[in-house]
Design brief:
alpha/beta; four-stranded mixed β-sheet; Alpha/beta knot; seven-stranded parallel β-sheet; 9 helices; 60s Ribosomal Protein L30, Chain: A; single chain
């Protein structure tokens, strides 16, 4: 079995990422600068290039929205929790993890992964059940972040939270409740993991109970809450902001 990536950004990151690319397919015709960059990357990694009709690429991608490039690549593999924790400890940076509790929509999942990669997370943890798997849609929505960001799939999210706490990581769940501490009032410069719940449902009861604290994003409008992807961006980059401020003060 192989995975199929499509669209310029996912294919580019697939050619640059940790997985082994197998074949690059491009449509017949004139090669523009963007496609030439992909051909150059393919040559660097000795990836065969096949010219195909657009209808062939439509079939490979499963739809016509592939921008004329499709990449066959080895199957995606999730990382082990132990490896993720080892990578954090070897990084010399405070832990910065994102846990997802029941994210099932591939577009939401992909957008969240893109946010996590942009914010510099050490990795993302998802449960095997009630969770969207990594797919071509997820990869495209993440703009190829899937190819670089460690993603750990665990059997029991609650047990994993306990393991992270035992490792000295503070767990903060994002909540839409008005009576919890505002995100901006909590110090997030140490070893932290943020937990994002399902769209509409939020965090499961057990997950909420296991968190060291619940944090809310102050809302000033009429809509009750942000969607999961938007909420993750706000929370992740509050961590980035606080750490940047701390480092500037320490200089």
């Amino acid at each position: 079995m192989t995975d199929i990536l499509y669209g310029f950004h996912p294919v580019r990151e697939g050619l640059r990422g940790r997985r082994q690319p197998l074949e690059l397919f491009v449509t017949d015709g004139t090669v523009n600068d963007r496609v030439q960059k992909l051909l150059d990357l393919a040559a660097e990694r000795s990836v065969p290039v096949r010219r195909r009709q657009k209808t062939d690429l439509d079939r490979l991608a499963g739809h016509p929205h592939h921008q004329g490039v499709v990449l066959s690549i080895e199957p995606f593999t999730y990382c082990d929790l132990e490896d993720l924790l080892a990578a954090w400890r070897n990084s010399g940076r405070p832990a910065f993890l994102l846990l997802l509790d029941g994210i099932t929509d591939p577009h939401n999942f992909g957008a969240i992964l893109r946010n996590a990669d942009a914010a510099g997370c050490h990795g993302v943890v998802v449960p095997k059940d009630r969770s969207c798997p990594v797919s071509g849609v997820v990869d495209k929505t993440s703009a190829g972040a899937v190819e670089h960001l460690p993603i750990c799939q665990v059997t029991n999210l609650g047990r994993t939270i306990e393991q992270l706490k035992a490792a000295g990581i503070w767990i903060y769940g994002l909540s839409g409740d008005d009576d919890v501490k505002p995100l901006y009032a909590e110090a997030l410069t140490g070893d932290v993991a943020l937990v994002i719940g399902a769209e509409g449902e939020g965090l499961r009861k057990l997950t909420r109970q296991l968190c060291d604290g619940l944090l809310s994003i102050p809302m000033g409008g009429q809509v009750a809450s942000l969607n999961a992807a938007s909420a993750s961006a706000v929370a992740l980059f509050e961590v980035v902001r606080q750490r940047k401020m701390r480092n500037e003060i320490a200089r």
